[in-house]
């Protein structure tokens, strides 16, 4: 399952995402991963959550990012949830067509590996592709 937290920059998406990941870690039996563009929020995460700083990796395209994400999942079969802050930035998505294609791939990965993705997306709900609107859990 893919869930989306949408809203313009500065509306509180990251705070909501951090609260959700810290709550969810208490409910899951497996591992939880938090992917961000830097380590700014490292000390706000529960110590059981694995933080991945995308700034440490030479990723430059959406396909490379999705391949990287598949590699993360392949290294730990216990991953149940993956939280992606600043999704459009870390995944190098520039337009709604790329976003829709990436969501389609994430849906396939969810079904194959029984993992949930929670994405923070810096766009208003009205500006998202139709495929994404049904996945929104909160719009700020």
Ranges where pLDDT stays below 50 over 5 or more residues in a row are: none
Distance between the termini: 21 Å
Shape: globular
Oligomer: single chain
Strand order of the largest sheet: 3-2-4-5-1-6
Largest sheet: 6 strands, parallel
Question: How would you sum up this structure, described in words?
Answer:
The structure is a single chain. The chain has 140 residues and is α/β, with parallel strands linked by helices. It is 36% helix and 22% strand. The protein has a six-stranded parallel β-sheet with strand order 3-2-4-5-1-6. Helix 2 packs parallel to helix 4. The longest helix is centred in the last third of the chain and has 18 residues. The mean pLDDT is 94.
Short description:
The chain is α/β, with parallel strands linked by helices and about 140 residues long. It has 5 helices and 6 strands; from the N terminus they run E-H-E-E-H-E-H-H-E-H-E. The longest helix is centred in the last third of the chain and has 18 residues, at about 95-115.
Descriptive terms for the model:
140 residues; 22% strand; alpha/beta
What's the topology here?
Layout: E1 2-6, H1 13-24, E2 31-36, E3 50-53, H2 62-74, E4 79-84, H3 87-90, H4 96-113, E5 116-121, H5 130-133, E6 136-139
Parallel strand pairs: 1-5, 1-6, 2-3, 2-4, 4-5
Helix pairs in contact: 2-4
